[in-house]
Amino acid sequence: MSSQPTDFIREIIEADLASGKHESIVTRFPPEPNGYLHIGHAKSIVLNFGVAEQYGGRCHLRFDDTNPTKEEMEYVESITEDVRWLGFDWGEHLHFASDYFGQLYEWAEHLVREGLAYVDDQSAEEIRATRGTLTEPGTPSPWRDRSVEENLDLLRRMKAGEFPDGSRVLRAKIDMAAPNLNLRDPVLYRILHEAHHRTGSEWCIYPMYDFAHGQSDAIEGITHSLCTLEFENHRPLYDWFLEHLPVPHRPRQVEFARLNLTYTVLSKRKLLRLVEEGHVNGWDDPRMPTISGLRRRGSTPESIRTFCERVGVARRDSTVDVALLEWAVRDHLNLTARRVMGVLRPLKVVIENYPEGQVEHFDAPYFPDDPPKMGSRKVPFTRELWVERTDFMEDPPKKFWRLAPGREVRLRWAYLVTCTGVVKDDEGNVVELRCTYDPETRGGNAPDGRKVRGTIHWVSAAHGIPAEVRLYDRLFDRPDPDRVDGEGEDFLANLNPHSLEVVEAVVEASLAGVAPGERFQFERTGYFCVDPDSTPERPVFNRTVPLRDSWAKIERQMQGRGKERGTR
Ligand code: ATP
Ligand code: MG
Q1: Is 360 a catalytic residue?
Q2: Is the CB–ligand 1 distance for residue 68 below 6 Å?
Q3: What pLDDT does 424 receive?
Q4: pLDDT by residue (tens digit) across 228-266?
Q5: pTM for this one?
Q6: Is 407 one of the catalytic residues?
Q7: Can you say whether the dihedral through the CA atoms of 473, 479, 480, 485 is positive or negative?
Q8: What is the pLDDT of residue 182?
Q9: In angstroms, how far is the first alpha carbon of the chain from the final one?
Q10: Is the CB of 376 under 6 A from ligand 1?
Q11: In CA terms, which of 8, 158, 193, 430 is 20 to 30 Å from 560?
């Protein structure tokens, strides 16, 4: 047990344990299976499973599947996979609100018998129209004072399928003048002749979320029902049901602020639109903030957990900079990803004084900072190589430590080379560089101690493997995608048209046969993850996150000062 609670929820839990209110704690993560999980859900998962783990309790995974019309098995499967991938285990406690339909119905009859619920024949519109406002009380339904017998009879006939959809509902009889609108005789059951993904056609009446959630918590012995702030004014209703029903246990609802991220939308409805309208290639598109998208992009479960812990929980809504997520991903990959070489935008280099047909193999550690950690591979060196187009400038400014006519650079793990010439096409584009190498510098150091600052990566043209590399940028080009300028526009107006760039790259030979999900750092370029679209002949890599580019930084500084030329 921690000595210092780190947030208000842990404070509550520790107080409840200290006072003996609970011997151990039980939490739950309650997704509705109507979409894929996103990074906001990860915050809730990390909190619920995290506190259970920390205080030696347990956490349930419970599907809140009370709405048969929008829910599908596909979502149940993706959600269980995602929670497991994040590293959490619900043990035997995989539950479904639909498992409790029988008990919930009995409790509905209980309320009817107690005179605390009635069947209302008004339409949904009439109910909405008579609910009143924040300043005016609602109008009681003409059916509010039906006898217990009549209510019981009607409820049973609703259940038996005698009435069409929408013709009647069961409502709690609480207070049509309650200041909290949720207490103005809320609907408990509605008629829906619709098959459910688990109970099939057994039911044609379904409980509302509010009537199912707290009671499910009670059935499962949940001690702390942690949910987001939009449920705060549902809490009186949550407590009302628990008070008026013979529940076996009294859970407590505690609300915290939901996660908002810059440049990101986290509403399932909006994510669904992105998928259905084809703005992205599915729920697991690497630009999506879904767990499956983040996974496909190459983020690690550890980094997502770290991110959620860093964000913490609070009662007040706020927006977190997406750079914090990128930082967490980079930070973990920095410690775990093998370093290899891949050239994203290849430019041919011919080493004029290197013998044709000769191959040398350089031993290159996968983790140069601590070579024994990950072992090494052999990198072949030949007369013709590929280097990065952005590592050459014909007319460079002073601080450009890369290739330029007459300048010498180090080829990572290999030799020092000097650029001696440039080949251009008819339009004046540079299509090839001519270089010479210094045979005395094998391994990359000059015996005379001359200083060569720049080191660039490269791939042997004879050995390199062509690869598709997908470079991602933010999906939206505004920090708040919901802010729009034009009349009638919505968040889609803020889609970043350059969120995906595909390049034809060449990667080092050791990457033949990589498997989807493997993660690498391409030195000097970024972190990359093998995409499931890969074939044995042609790997596909997703750029998870770029490295911070030192030249881009210098360039920005120069532009800021306006002193030196800084074009590239
Ligand atoms: P949406 O509003 O996007 O449809 P939801 O809240 O309806 O999402 P649920 O499946 O009901 O999605 O959510 C399951 C749990 O995850 C709930 O406890 C909910 O409070 C929590 N949750 C959802 N979004 C966030 C978020 N952005 N930050 C933190 N928790 C969240
Ligand atoms: Mg919800």
Answers
A1: no
A2: no
A3: 97
A4: 999 999 999 999 999 999 999 999 999 999 999 999 999
A5: 0.93
A6: no
A7: negative
A8: 98
A9: 56
A10: no
A11: 430
Q: How far apart are CA 400 and CA 440, in angstroms?
A: 25
Shortest CA distance to 417 belongs to which of 372, 462, 379, 384?
384
- By residue count, the chain amounts to 568
Domain that includes residue 493, residue range: 340-558
- Into how many domains does the chain fold? 2
Q: Whose CA is nearest to atom 4 of ligand 1?
A: 268
Residue 480: pLDDT over 60: yes
Residue 3 in this model has a pLDDT that exceeds 70:
no
Q: What b/e string do you get for 356-395 counting C-beta neighbours within 10 Å, with b at 16 or more? A: eeeeeebebbbbeeeeeeeebbebbbbbebbbbebbbbee
Q: How far is 220 from 414, CA to CA, in rounded Å?
A: 63
Give the residue from 336, 366, 399 where a domain finishes: 336
Structure tokens at 364: 């290159």
Contacts of 183 (CB under 8 A, 6+ apart): 174, 175, 236, 237, 240
CB 32 less than 6 A from any atom of ligand 1: yes
The answer to whether 308 touches 47, Cβ cutoff 8 Å, is yes
Q: Is the pLDDT of residue 71 over 80?
A: no
Q: Of 283, 304, 336, which marks where a domain is finished?
A: 336
pLDDT tens string 486-532: 899 999 999 999 999 999 999 999 999 999 999 999 999 999 999 99
Predicted local confidence at residue 561, as pLDDT:
60
Report how far apart, in Å, the C-alpha atoms of 6 and of each of 17, 161, 261, 526 are. 16, 51, 22, 34
Any domain includes 223: no
Burial class (CB in 10 A: 0-12, 13-18, 19+), 430: middle
- Ligand minimally distant from the alpha carbon of residue 266: 1
pLDDT at 5: 67
In a domain, 239, yes or no: no
> In terms of domains, do 361 and 271 share one?
no
When pLDDT is averaged across residues 193-203 and rounded to a whole number, the result is 95
Catalytic residue among 268, 287, 295, 383: 268
268 & 401 share domain:
no
Residue range 366-383: mean pLDDT, rounded: 96
- CATH code at 313? 1.10.1160.10
Average pLDDT of span 37-47: 98
My answer on whether 522 and 548 are in the same domain is yes
Residues 329 and 349 both lie in one domain: no
Is the minimum distance from the CB of 318 to ligand 1 under 6 angstroms? no
What pLDDT score was predicted for residue 4? 63
What does the mean pLDDT of the chain come to? 95
For residue 355, give the DSSP letter: P
Would the pLDDT of 549 be above 80? no
Q: What is the pLDDT of residues 165-193, one digit of tens each?
A: 999 999 999 999 999 999 999 999 999 99
Q: Is the Cβ atom of 43 under 6 angstroms away from ligand 1?
A: yes
Is 258 catalytic? The answer is: yes
Q: Which residue lies with its CA nearest to atom 22 of ligand 1?
A: 41
Residue with tokens 């190459």: 298
Same domain, 386 and 519: yes
Note whether 321 and 439 are same-domain residues. no
C-alpha neighbours within 13 Å on the C-beta side of residue 65:
26
